[in-house]
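Dear all,

This email documents one entry for the complex benchmark we are building for the journal club exercise. For each entry we list the sequence lines for every component of the assembly. Then comes the predicted three-dimensional structure of the complex as a token string, followed by one or two observations. Please use this as the template for your own entries, and keep the labels exactly as they appear.
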Amino acid sequence: MLDKILCIDDDPITLMLCRKVVEKVEFAKEIITVNNGEEAIHYFDRLFEEKKGNGEVAYPKLVLLDLNMPVMDGWEFLESYITKDYQNVFDSTRFIVLSSSIDPYDINRSKTYPVIGFLSKPVTKEMLENLKTQFP
Amino acid sequence: MKNNSNKITLIYVLILMFVAVVGHKLFANYFLESATESPLEYSYLKDILYIIFSGILLKIILYQNEMRNKSVFEKLQLTNIEIKESNERYDIVAKATSDTIWDWKMEDDSFIWNKGIQGVFGYKKEDVGKTSKWWFDRIHPEDSLKMSVKLYSFLEQKTEKWQDEYRFQCADGSYKYVFDRGFLVKDADGKSIRMIGAIQDVTKQKEEEQRLRLLETVITQSKDAVMITDIDTSENEIPNIIFVNSAFTDMTGYSANEVIGKSPAMFFGKRSDILEYDKLKTAVQQYKECFVETIFYKKNGKEFWVNFSMIPVTNKDGEHTHWVSIQRDVTEEKEKEKEREQLIRELTQNNKDLKQFSYITSHNLRAPLSNLTGLLNLIDDINIEDPELKEIISGFSKSTHLLNETINDLVKVIIIKDNPSIQKEKVLIKEVFENVFNQLSFLISVHKPILKIDLEDVSILEINKSYLESIFLNLLTNAIKYRAPIRQLKVTIATKVENDNLIITFKDNGIGIDLEKNKDKIFGLYQRFHNYPDSKGLGLYLVKSQVESMNGTISVSSVVGKGTTFTIVFKYT
């Protein structure tokens, strides 16, 4: 079981569903939810500050990322994340794009980021069971 | 001659002497036998004197006559030489000008031709007629009336010169254009007695003239404006106009007089394309042909689009002498082109908007739908006691899944239509089938169809794998869905290679489709042929889209109650 995962989605039902399924399959102990890319960046900024202060911080090992979001969408978030060099700061964090987008362009674009998967909504138990095997 | 006159005189004297002597002797014997000698002797002497005197007289007369004859003879001789020379000269001149000369004596209608009639027109000497009729008979029927009217009016007016052009028949029946000039000879009373003419063969000139006239009509009657300029650029950068045709006047409103001597630069104006003008200027400097398209200005100041060519022309020595320019008013085409471009822009934009719209729609539909699916998945784990609620939730679940499938299919269609160049890879057809069977294992286990699969070993295709999978999945699902309930389903799938094509056939013994009725609709969007609750009318449309996106073709044959066969053909290389 993972300690902490982050769910970035503007849809509260999706977040609720996500939380329910994660609890059901005991995928993670703690699930943090934010509503868009900007909130997610702020979340990582805070973690980064803490890490600078303490030297050590518990950060999510898996991020489920939606693409279409207001304020800051998934791509902008990834750009910002890389610009801030967070992929080296939080070096064991992995991203999975969880979207209902069917634009082939999106699928190809996700391949240019440190994204380990492109999954179609909804989150299912099978999906998480499968993911579990990829994390120790 | 001189000796002759002397001889004649001497013989005359001798004969007279003889007559005188014999006469005397006879006279003396008969009448004066005894007469004295003296009177007789005297008379005898007198006779001799007379004789000598008359001899001298004769000689003088003869001499004078002789002199006169001599001078006449000399004159004749001289005339003779002159005639000979002039004859020769006439022959040479006729030869040099290659004129055919004729000589017509009107009183007895005798008509004489020189050798030209043989050389130029090919007649044999014996075939050449000797009357004016022969001449008239050989004039082209279309010309003869006009020509004879002119000739006789000339003869009436009694002017001295006559000339005309007509066609004259050759020995071989063909006609030559001739130019004939005649002179009238009159007698002392002023009556025409003779006419002499010279015929010149002008066929070549005539033909050239006709050719040129024909070529000229191209310029004068052309609907395209034609303009010719000289090559002198000392005054203007674009040389001055020396000719324009009437189409030019129609196009620009300028008459020939208004533009000749001026540079075509005068048609350029405020909104003309300066780059095009420079292009023209450079071409003129380099003696190169040039095509420009720009706005020109008419005499009334109105703008029009012109398509303008400028082509250098050379004389036969290869020297550049003129520029020929052909121009066309292309305003209408230009406007149409603009409209077309505008239309294409609008359509492209519309298309883009629609595509965007469909992505957004499908996304916005999918987002809540996926939530519904997720929530229903969660309900599955909850034990529901209330049978009514259970039924409602089951219906809710079925509807949601159907909606989900429909949207997924539509999304696939959108992706195919949007992606004309899809990724291709080497695909082993057998493998694809195995995948499909795995996905349909539940359906297959329920309906237990007889599957006869006959794949050729070389069934590797350069193709998009997921499309092929989707095609097989759809066809096989259809076969199971539309099986005939009265008999066991039998599906035969075969592949074969034929003429660089890979042919895949899908044959079932299901309920079939009435192709008579549905020929055009079978692969259409939202076409359903059977009242089955879970048929969406999308499957075959999707299959056809996928096949075609991989440059394949699909066809169908079916008999109601017997079964359906789909044949898919891909290029196999």
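Observations: Chain B touches chain A through 20 residues (CB under 8 Å). The radius of gyration of chain B is 59 Å.
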